[in-house]
User: What shape does this take?
Amino acid sequence: MHISASILSADFSRLGDELRALEATGRVARVHVDVMDGVFVPNISVGLPIVAAVRRSCNLPIAVHLMTVSPDRYAERFVAAGASIVAVHVEACPHLHRDIALIERAGALPAVALNPATPAWAIEAALPDIAQVLLMSVDPGYGGQAFLPQSLRKIAQVRHMRDERGLAVEIAVDGGVNADTAPGVLAAGADVLVVGSALFAGDSFDDAVAAIWRAATRSPS
Assistant: This one.
């Protein structure tokens, strides 16, 4: 199990300090940056300067989640800014394999994201060519939303597809992940928990991260 800290919920006036504090816990594997264009999702978030600032502020790998139309226009620039993983949405990519190859050529690991209403089979053809499947467990665009329980079935379906083919693709889950929902998400087959509000809303990153790790050892209720 890995934790990826989603900075959508961070205090941007203290972003560098918060990133270094998360890194100091020793239990956060990477930083997750949501890039929204106000078209593919109904919100606007951050862009290239923030990714570059994250890269300067800590040594954790950066996963960039492009919630944009035409992600091929931006993917290479986000890799140049410091992204180690770049996720594009299957719903936004009519030429998905071309976009996957573009990310690889730029020097990052390609990932593909699915919205909650998109069926698991939509990712099947791309599985051999990607490093990660990013499953949205809320409708994307805003942080702090409640986990959609129907996501558990999709996690299990993607896990089955992956294991049946003997692939090493990570399964990451993003949206409403906290100490209460983490046990079910992990039991369904996830490898990476993308955690935002549950990390940044409290007073102590050490306590918040420890709570997620304790939850990882619990059986789902």
